[in-house]
Specification:
The protein is α+β, with helices and mostly antiparallel strands. The protein has 3 domains: 92 residues, 3-Layer(aba) Sandwich (Rossmann fold); 60 residues, Dna Ligase, domain 1, CATH 3.30.1490.20; 196 residues, 2-Layer Sandwich (D-amino Acid Aminotransferase, Chain A, domain 1). The chain has 12 helices and 20 strands. Strands 12, 13, 14, 15, 16, 17, 18, 19 and 20 form a 9-stranded antiparallel sheet that branches. It has a 5-stranded parallel sheet with strand order 5-4-3-6-7, sandwiched between helices. Strands 8-11-9-10 form a 4-stranded antiparallel sheet. The protein is globular. Bound molecules: adenosine-5'-triphosphate and magnesium ion.
């Protein structure tokens, strides 16, 4: 295979093609970025109506483990990435035998498992960054349960695998609640984390190339509601400069120590005493980075394309202040529970408003249907328009 995979190249008589495992909104925005550079795209997803599958040149509708589907993907694409961390790491490993694959399967496997993920964070903290994960204990047996230190309560019990948007989590105040929550989770491997007094949450997205070059996006300040990201704010002074620098440095360390290739997002807590704590990582672009499509000269999806194809990584620059509002399914229902269309015409009349809908036919409460990014020259103006948009949409002010 010729490397890098240049846009517009012809490979075996066909246009250079990039593949993605997973057809959700992250895959859809990856496809947009790849196509705008001139690549063809191929998406593999089990859902016939997947947001990315619907706009890709090629779509393979199959399970992620289907060997024929993986063969077809490898036959069509010169390089393959993932938009979804719960894609079987085995599928990535298999594809990697025939094709360029990023991120590497073993890195995805670490990010899929909170126990291994926290161990990596703890190693990085000890070796260099000093930014540690929350105090926690691994629970895999009755003995582990009995040995939980009292200092971890009240805490949050999280399944080691397959959690997202606050799913697979239970807040527990006492040993009895902990025992019954673990029972309810089917006694699968879990992590109990001490409940921390959060002042705010933030995240950092970095991209690392195969040659070890790392570039970073600005630090995102995030507001979660009900375990789901609601608002991301990115502009000068969105959090104290020293904390922002510390979070970026810790993220660079985490990505380099993994020998990672691709786009990685690390989520952090800032505690009420000002300390930074590392929460979790996603081996892919992240919801908190969607603003980059409208507010940066290179989006997180452009960076994903570049790392996948081996193109140069240039430090991205944010050119506009930005606030992103997630558009969840409840906005498609009125107070009486009847279906409605959100007031797009009014929202789009606001200066700097950029609407992104993912093409999902069915709205359900909590389902990510799209996002709205408001951009502008200064934070105050952006905040004013974003608050206006929230009011029009029925999103609680922030
Ligand atoms: P994601 O959708 O980001 O993958 P997730 O379901 O994997 O989310 P976490 O990021 O671990 O879950 O937790 C979701 C939210 O719950 C956090 O953003 C934070 O608001 C809160 N939270 C999680 N852990 C703690 C903690 N130890 N102390 C206080 N709050 C916490
Ligand atoms: Mg999270």
């Amino acid at each position: 295979m010729t490397w890098p995979i240049l846009p517009g190249a012809v490979v075996n008589g066909r246009p250079a093609t990039l593949g993605v495992l997973g057809g959700g909104q992250l895959g859809r925005m990856f496809v947009h970025a790849a196509q705008s550079l001139g690549y063809e795209t191929v998406v593999l997803d089990p859902d016939r109506a997947s947001p990315a599958g619907r706009i890709s040149h090629h779509f393979i509708c199959a399970d992620y483990r289907d060997p024929n589907a993986l063969r077809e993907l490898a036959a069509r694409a010169q390089a393959v990435t993932t938009e979804f961390e719960n894609v079987p790491a085995q599928a990535l490993a298999e594809l990697a035998r025939a094709r360029a694959v990023s991120p590497p399967a073993d890195c995805v496997a670490i990010a899929q498992d909170r126990i291994r993920e926290k161990a990596h964070f703890a190693r990085c903290a000890a070796a260099a960054s000093g930014v540690a994960p929350a105090p926690h204990a691994v629970i895999e047996s009755e003995a582990d349960l009995a040995a939980v230190p009292a200092a971890l309560l009240p805490g949050i019990l999280k399944t080691a695998r397959l959690g997202y948007d606050g799913k697979g989590q239970a807040r527990v105040g006492t040993r009895a609640e902990l025992a019954s929550a673990w029972q309810q989770m089917g006694r699968v491997a879990c992590v109990l984390e001490q409940m921390l007094p959060l002042a705010l949450e933030c995240s950092v997205i970095v991209a690392r190339g195969a040659d070890g070059t790392v570039v970073s996006l600005p630090v995102q300040r995030n507001l979660h509601r009900g375990g789901i990201l609601a608002v991301t704010e990115v502009f000068e002074q969105n959090l104290p400069a020293a904390l922002a620098q510390q979070a970026q440095a810790a993220t660079k360390n985490i990505v380099s120590e993994l020998d990672y290739v691709g786009v990685l997002c690390v989520e952090y807590f800032v505690l009420q005493d000002g300390r930074l704590v590392v929460n979790e990582m996603a081996p892919r672009p992240h919801n908190s980075g969607h603003y980059t499509v409208d507010a940066c000269d290179q989006s997180q999806f452009d960076l994903q394309v570049r790392t996948l194809a081996g193109l140069p990584l240039v430090a991205p620059r944010q050119h506009s202040a930005a606030i992103m509002l997630n558009l969840l399914g409840e906005l498609w229902f009125d107070a009486a529970g009847s279906p409605r269309q959100p007031p797009w015409a009014d929202v789009l009349a606001l200066p700097g408003a950029r609407l992104h809908l993912y093409g999902k036919a069915q709205a359900r409460p909590g389902r990510k249907m799209g996002h709205l990014t408001v951009i502008g020259q200064d934070a105050a103006g952006v905040r004013q328009q974003a608050l206006r948009a929230a009011e029009l949409l029925g999103i609680e002010a922030f």
